[in-house]
Amino acid sequence: MDIMEAIRERHSVRVYKDDKISDEIREKLGALVEEVNEESGLNITIEYDNPEGFDSKLAHYGSFRNVRNFIILKGKEAPDFEERCGYYGEKIALEAQMLGLNTCWTALTFNKKMVRQLVPDNERFCLVIALGYGETSGTPKKHKEMSDVVVTKGNMPEWFRKGAEAALLAPTAVNQQKFKMGLVGGEPVIKVAGMGFYTKVDLGIVKYHFEVASGRKVV
């Protein structure tokens, strides 16, 4: 599976099997997390074999079952903290997909008290990503049309079209997709559009999808 297949096939999964994640996969994800933290300045960690992270009434209300592994997005406070968490969290989630795992972004339905104990006092917590072998592969969510989010009119370069198509497949909080994109001086620009939950995190996720699909950096 390549990155584009991962983008198309990654869907939110809330119910997981008991299968343990192998040492080989943990090693690969660990190497990526180390690389991501060095590049981003974040302090992302992965908690394995810890069912307490999603052992709460809220998690069960959110239909999460048997979550034993999860990614914690955290780091030093900064103006772009949430956007970086989205960008690099999705990078890890898509790598997990390519390694045969499933994931689900969540901001509310987990054991907050327990997870926050794993965050140093001098760091800010963002959210978590459930991780493991799903009982299913999840189902695609309905998404907006390209005309709903692209503001640039007329013909668009093929690289931009590919990036926009991938951006529309990005997971966003409650599937809100509150972003707009276009070309300014021939360069791709993506901005938050409107009010919503975790729109800055969503922006980071969307930007990552666009960049890996288009091969162009969002300015």
Structure in words:
By secondary structure, the protein is an alpha+beta fold. 38% of the residues lie in helices and 16% in strands. Strands 1-2-4-3 form a 4-stranded antiparallel β-sheet, with helices on one face. Helix 1 (3-9) crosses helix 4 (81-98), helix 2 (23-40) runs antiparallel to helix 4 (81-98) and helix 7 (158-168) packs antiparallel against helix 8 (199-214). It is globular. The two termini are 29 Å apart. The mean pLDDT is 95.
Write a brief structural summary.
The chain folds into two domains: 3-132, 3-Layer(aba) Sandwich (NADH Oxidase), CATH 3.40.109; 146-214, putative nitroreductase (tm1586), domain 2 (NADH Oxidase, 3-Layer(aba) Sandwich). Helix content is 38%, strand content 16%.
